[in-house]
Amino acid sequence: MTRFIDVKDEISLAVAEHIGLVGKDPSLPSKRKRRRELRSGVRPEGNGSGRLVHEYRVAGADNDHYEEKITDIQSGEVLRDIAEPLSVHQNHGSAKKK
Question: Is residue 71 a contact partner of residue 93, using CB atoms and an 8 Å limit?
Fold first, then answer.
């Protein structure tokens, strides 16, 4: 006796892209070598909530510029929107004083 079983499954998959670029000046010492940085794309939010956010960040040491915009993908809510001189943007993220 032969039996045939028909099994069907559905999988939902989301693909997220995130790019990070860094411009360095090799003639400078290691702490001052990074002159430009760009990050753009979709990533999980940093607080462990699991929601996806779109990040756009540009930092330039040579032109003293910092810009960052983080938007919730589902709701479209802007979570963070900053544009200021890089020299003013201190004690944030990994640079926080402990």
Answer: no
Does pTM surpass 0.70?
yes
Q: Which pair of structure tokens corresponds to residue 94?
A: 């990994």
Give the amino acid at 17. Answer: E
Tokens 């430009």 label which residue?
Answer: 36
pLDDT tens track, the chain, 98 positions: 788 888 888 887 777 789 999 999 999 988 888 899 999 999 988 777 878 999 999 999 999 999 999 999 999 999 999 999 988 887 776 666 66
- The per-residue b/e assignment along 21-59, b for 16 or more CB within 10 angstroms, e otherwise, is eeeeeeeeeeeeeeebbebbeebeeeeeeeeebbbebbb
82-to-29, 52, 67, 70 alpha-carbon distances in Å: 28, 19, 5, 9
